[in-house]
Amino acid sequence: MSKIIVLIGAPGAGKGTQARLLEERLGISQISTGDMFREMKNADTPLAREVQAIMSAGKLVSDDLTFQIVQDRTSREDCKETFILDGFPRTAVQAEMLERLASVQKKEITAILVDVPLDHLMKRLTGRRKCKSCGELYNIYFKPPKNDNVCDFHPETKLEHRADDYEDKVNVRLAVYEEETKPLLTYYEQSKRLKKVNGEGELEEIYSELEKLV
Ligand code: AP5
Fold first, then answer.
1. How far is 197 from 183, CA to CA, in rounded Å?
2. In this structure, which residue's CA is closest to atom 1 in ligand 1?
3. pLDDT single digits (tens) 151-187
4. Which atom of ligand 1 lies at the shortest distance from residue 94's CA?
5. Which of 77, 116, 156, 195 is most buried by a 10 A CB count?
6. Does any ligand 1 atom lie closer than 6 A to the CB of residue 203?
7. Topology of domain 3-117+179-213, per CATH?
8. Ligand 1 pocket test: which of 4, 6, 15, 20 has the largest number of ligand atoms within 8 Å of its C-beta?
9. 11 lines ligand 1 (CB under 6 A)
C-alpha cells in the first residue's frame, strides 16, 4: 500500500533539508506547506497578504486553508503513490483531516520525528539562508556558501533570510510547536505509527537513518 510519510519536528529540525534529499535521491514527491505558503508571497491578494502576516509573526495559518492547499496539491499525478508531507499536520484538527484524506486516497500514514533538542535550534534558524533561484539551503554557521551571501550555483542570486528566522519570531514558532504540534507525537505513538530519527548529527548520517525507515 502507498504511504503518506509525515515528517514531524520542531522548526529548524531539518525536515525540509531531509525531505529534499529523499525527493532527489528516491524520487518521492515532497510537499512542504511552508514552501507553498511562501510561494503565495508574490500574489497581491488579501488572502496572500494575510498569510504573509501570519507567517512573519511565527503563528499558524488556519487549519481549513492549510488543508485545502494540501488536498489540492496531493491530488496531482506525482502524489498518486507514496509522498512526503513536510510541515503538515501541525495541529490535532489537521491530523484528523489527514486521516480522512489518507482514507480517500487509500494510503497508510507513517509519521517520522526528526528529533533535535530545542536548545540546538536557534542557530540553525537564525543562520539559515536560501537561494531564491534553486531553493538550496545554507547555514552561515554550519553550511556556509563559498562566497558570502550568494548561492554556490547561482552567484548572481543573493541569499534570502526568512522574515520568521529572526530570534523573536523563532521563539514564537518554538512555543507554537510545543503547544500545538508536539501532542501529535503521542497521537501517532499511541496508534503505533511513529518512528524517530536523531536529527542532531551530520546530514548524511541522518539521511541514511531516514532512508531505512522510508
Ligand atoms: P515551515 O516552512 O514548515 O517552517 P518550520 O516547520 O518552522 O520548519 P523550518 O522550515 O523552519 O525548518 P525545517 O525543519 O524544515 O529545517 P531546515 O531543513 O530548513 O513553516 C513556516 C510557516 O508556514 C509556519 O510558521 C506557519 O506560519 C506556516 N505553516 C506551514 N505549515 C503549516 C500548517 N500545517 N499549518 C498552519 N500553518 C503552517 O533546516 C534549518 C536550518 O538548519 C538550515 O539552515 C539547514 O541548513 C540547517 N540544518 C539542517 N540539518 C542540519 C544538521 N543536521 N546539522 C546542522 N544544520 C542543519
1. 18
2. 34
3. 999 999 899 999 999 999 999 999 999 999 999 999 9
4. 34
5. 116
6. yes
7. Rossmann fold (3.40.50)
8. 15
9. yes
In contact, 34 and 125? CB cutoff 8 Å? no
- pTM of full prediction above 0.85: yes
Residues 23-73 pLDDT 10s: 999 999 999 999 999 988 778 898 999 999 999 999 999 999 999 999 999
Mutation to probe ligand 1, out of 90, 91, 116, 136 (largest number of atoms < 8 A from CB): 90
pLDDT of res. 197: 97
CA contacts within 13 A on the Cβ side of 53: 7
**Residue ranges of domains in the chain:** 3-117+179-213
Residue 150: all three cell numbers together:
550568494
Contacts of 75 (CB under 8 A, 6+ apart): none
Average pLDDT of the chain is 95
